[in-house]
């Protein structure tokens, strides 16, 4: 986290929304809007993330407001939990910092027809099997190897590339954002180094806050929507949180180098060089967009292969096929991405580049991009929490379209830096503490558990309460972790 507290203005302007006025900082083209409860403001002020919201408000072509969700915390250039939309017709820019290093980091939820009583005596065996089957940790290679030609094809086609090889079924695509394929991705704009980094990592979890959890639905808040999603009390689900691994990181790193001189070249100023950006319709901007979309397709593929391995592990432990166990995908949604979307701004429909960095698309009922199976109720929104408390399933709502470019939060949001969490964990046995809570946890390193301990995060119930009250998405069901594997 950044050093120093934020002492600038946060003006309450409505239900759970606080404004940073344009008078706060020279160059702000629009205000900042931060969604949070009054109780959260003390934590939010502890770092410079609100100042980053103000910085983003200076970007050329930004529309309406620079927005942050209640899981806001400091990030590279943009805060985590940040949202902004830029209009290419008004000189709008694209910014890798507004997507993040882990392009298409996202979440996938897998349902089962198992219930708590079916798994509670198998959890240790199940978690061990998941941990020793699914590669975890930084830089780990997996069982799936792709040569450079195959890796580029995978980026061009998305999960269909591996489904055609028997690693999943076509209906998985129907329940993936954009059907797992962002149009306009060009794998040939991805560097050879990035391709090399991705060749053996597709189907691996990674490190940091990435995880695979076995969860139980412990509360249902909207029975009708839960029924439409196929969720019910005590049902067992599997949540997967991972992204585009080293390939996506390298795409971001490569683009930041090429964007370094763009402010001078295109005649604009930035308050922070980490906001590096280029006009959407510039050579630099077009190259990044093409590579970012290809990396996003890789991210969908990564979660597809992680899901398929989880299906195989469940089948082995319970002695039934994954189809017989009802292991169907509810949904897969990105929370680190930039997409060209149509939104109504001041009464006029515009196509804008919506940057979501640690923020989740939350389209309402009737939106054409919501899968047909859910169009009557709205898009499933998957919100992971921490490994000791809870995660959530929400549903998209019209309020998000009206206020936040169809966006809601993406998780709990860190309350402690990784360094502080590690220090806090000295002398403690986090795995034993979790076991006392009823959670079996396995990680590649002790530090991995200490960095991600529940105390390091805000309470996701509070974060979800804000987006529900602000009508950015609505509560459907709450899940409690039973078992987790991490890097």
Please provide a brief summary of the model.
This protein is α+β, with helices and mostly antiparallel strands. It has helices spanning about 40-45, 50-55, 115-120, 125-135, 150-155, 160-165, 170-175, 190-200, 225-230, 245-260, 260-265, 285-320, 400-405, 420-425, 430-435, 445-450, 460-470; strands at about 10-15, 15-20, 30-35, 65-75, 80-85, 95, 105-115, 210-220, 235-240, 280, 330-335, 335-345, 350-355, 360, 380-385, 390-395, 405-410, 440-445, 475-485.
Topology:
Layout: E1 11-14, E2 17-20, E3 32-35, H1 41-44, H2 49-56, E4 66-73, E5 80-86, E6 93-94, E7 106-115, H3 116-119, H4 123-133, H5 148-157, H6 160-163, H7 170-174, H8 192-198, E8 211-220, H9 223-229, E9 235-242, H10 245-259, H11 262-266, E10 278-279, H12 283-318, E11 329-334, E12 336-345, E13 348-357, E14 360-361, E15 380-383, E16 391-396, H13 398-403, E17 407-408, H14 418-424, H15 430-436, E18 440-443, H16 446-451, H17 460-469, E19 473-486
Parallel strand pairs: 3-4, 18-19
Antiparallel strand pairs: 1-2, 2-3, 4-5, 5-13, 6-10, 7-9, 7-11, 8-9, 8-19, 12-13, 14-17, 15-16, 16-19
Helix pairs in contact: 4-12, 5-12, 8-10, 10-12
Distance between the termini: 21 Å
Helix content: 25-40%
Which term fits the overall shape? Answer: globular
CATH class: Alpha Beta
Family: Belongs to the RtcB family.
Protein name: tRNA-splicing ligase RtcB
Binding site for Mn(2+) 1: 102, 210
Keywords: GTP-binding, Ligase, Manganese, Metal-binding, Nucleotide-binding, RNA repair
């Amino acid at each position: 986290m950044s050093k120093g507290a934020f002492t600038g203005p946060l003006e309450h302007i409505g239900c759970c929304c606080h404004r940073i006025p344009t008078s706060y900082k020279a160059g702000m083209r629009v205000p900042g809007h931060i969604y949070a409860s009054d109780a959260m403001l003390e934590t939010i002020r502890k770092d410079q993330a609100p100042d980053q919201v103000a910085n983003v408000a200076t970007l050329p072509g930004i529309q309406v407001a620079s927005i942050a969700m209640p899981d806001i915390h400091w990030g590279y250039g943009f805060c985590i939990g940040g949202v902004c939309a830029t209009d290419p017709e008004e000189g709008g820019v694209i910014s890798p910092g507004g997507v993040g290093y882990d392009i298409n980091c996202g979440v996938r939820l897998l349902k089962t027809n198992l219930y708590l009583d079916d798994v509670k005596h198998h959890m240790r065996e199940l978690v061990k099997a998941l941990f020793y089957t699914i590669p975890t940790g930084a830089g780990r290679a997996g069982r799936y190897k792709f040569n450079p030609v195959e890796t580029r094809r995978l980026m061009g086609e998305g999960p269909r590339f591996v489904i055609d090889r028997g690693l999943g079924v076509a209906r998985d695509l129907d329940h993936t954002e954009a059907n797992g394929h962002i149009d306009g991705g060009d794998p040939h704009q991805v560097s050879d180094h990035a391709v090399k980094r991705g060749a053996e990592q597709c189907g691996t979890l990674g490190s940091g806050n990435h995880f695979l959890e076995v969860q139980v639905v412990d509360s249902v808040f909207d029975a009708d929507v839960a029924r439409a999603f196929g969720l019910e009390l005590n049902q067992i689900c599997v949540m997967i949180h991972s992204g585009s691994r080293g390939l996506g990181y390298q795409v971001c790193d490569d683009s930041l180098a090429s964007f370094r001189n763009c402010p001078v070249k295109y005649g604009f100023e930035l308050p922070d060089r980490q906001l590096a950006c280029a006009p959407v319709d510039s050579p630099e901007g077009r190259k990044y967009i093409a590579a970012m979309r290809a990396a996003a397709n890789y991210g969908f593929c990564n979660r597809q292969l992680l899901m398929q391995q989880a299906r195989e592990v469940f089948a082995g432990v319970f002695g039934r096929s994954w189809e017989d166990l009802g292991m169907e995908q509810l949904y897969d949604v990105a929370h680190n991405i930039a997409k060209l979307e149509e939104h109504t701004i001041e009464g006029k429909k515009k196509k804008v580049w919506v940057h979501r960095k640690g923020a989740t698309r939350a389209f309402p009922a009737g939106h054409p991009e919501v899968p047909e199976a859910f169009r009557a109720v709205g898009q499933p929104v998957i919100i992971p929490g921490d490994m000791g408390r809870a995660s959530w399933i929400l549903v998209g709502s019209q309020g998000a379209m009206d206020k936040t470019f169809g966006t809601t939060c993406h998780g709990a949001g860190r309350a402690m830096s990784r360094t502080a969490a590690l220090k806090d964990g000295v002398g403690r046995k986090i795995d034993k503490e979790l076991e006392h809570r009823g959670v079996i946890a396995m990680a590649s390193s002790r530090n991995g558990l200490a960095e991600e301990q529940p105390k390091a995060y805000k309470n996701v119930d509070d974060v979800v309460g804000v987006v529900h009250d602000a009508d950015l998405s609505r509560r459907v069901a709450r899940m409690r972790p039973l078992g987790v594997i991490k890097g």
